[in-house]
Amino acid sequence: MAELQLKSVEKMYGNGFKAVHGIDLDVKDGEFMVLVGPSGCAKSTTLRMIAGLETISGGEIRIGDRIINDLTPGKRGIAMVFQNYALYPHMKVRKNLSFGLKLKRKPKDEIEASTGEVSGILEIDELLDRLPKQLSGGQAQRVAVGRALIKSPEVFLFDEPLSNLDAKLRASMRVRITDLHKRLRDEGRPATVIYVTHDQVEAMTMGDRICVMKDGHIMQVADPVTLYEKPANAFVAGFIGMPEMNLADAELTMDGTPKLTLAGQTISAPADLSARLNAAPGPVTLGIRPQHMTIETDGAADAFSGVIHNIEFMGHEVNVHVTIGDAAFIAVVPTEKFDLKLQRGDRVGLRPTGVQMHIFDRASGENVSLAE
């Protein structure tokens, strides 16, 4: 396997539209890197440039010590798994798996051994004599992964491979793919993986690190825990996490200690937030995850007063939707701690947990509450 590097990579189309804006990304040897972001953020375009299916307009792409900008896809040392599986419909699974090795004129015994090994790893031995039309979606996707795996490429590329599967199969395939990556690493043949998805659950559960993209820019690259706990900006904060982070316009003042005003209500910033805050007084965006808010009696100290406008029972937890002025908040409360007497229209206090409160500069979106 090999390290992958993107240096100042750009993509400009003939009509003048710039899809990718000089991005830099280093993917370690054997790392599972996920590119995630909303539709149109250029994550698939970036993957296709790595694959050689799109030309780059500027910058440099390296795999190991090779610059691959001008190499054809077949000479880049990559294997790609597509969203639509892209299996040869007239070939049985066995031939689909081995076709790439036959093109490379590998010896017959080597092809048979590799086919057997890959089909065993992916548990598709019993499918080898079936045609693609006889496979379920999950089976077809495992065959597509096997066809990439058998080539022993330097870099694996996955382009939203699970988006055509139902929720149960997606969850199963997430585990299979990450288990396969760990198994190869444990066996001393680590696989460098670039995985594109718009699904943040896939990103958070699969990636060693995650690259969050927006409009052709990289917003943050970090491990899942860091993205969740220390988002670099308001976009990452709002994109990562379910339910998404509560974000609302507020005013920061520094009257002795920092204070936050929202919808005409002012609370003191908790001591831990004060210690890490690096911001001048003025307009900010207050960010609090739903899991880090508590429901209090109306009028409780350092809690915002609001009105419940919806209650969602989710089984093990309750999503409480509270309106504070024009801002809508969600608080996630464990079911056993939820007051069943509460109902729509009740006024309650909403208190943020200080250690998990974030302050973003309203103009730039930068998180100004990350200072140590």
UniProtKB/TrEMBL annotation:
Alphabetized Pfam families for the sequence: ABC_tran, TOBE_2
Keywords: ATP-binding, Nucleotide-binding, Transport
Transmembrane segment boundaries: none
Keyword Transport: yes
Record domain ABC transporter: where: 4-240
UniProt-recorded Gene Ontology molecular function terms: ABC-type maltose transporter activity; ATP binding; ATP hydrolysis activity
SMART domains tied to this protein: AAA
Entry's family note: Belongs to the ABC transporter superfamily.
Record-given protein name: Oligogalacturonide transport system ATP-binding protein
Lineage of the organism: Bacteria, Pseudomonadati, Pseudomonadota, Alphaproteobacteria, Rhodobacterales
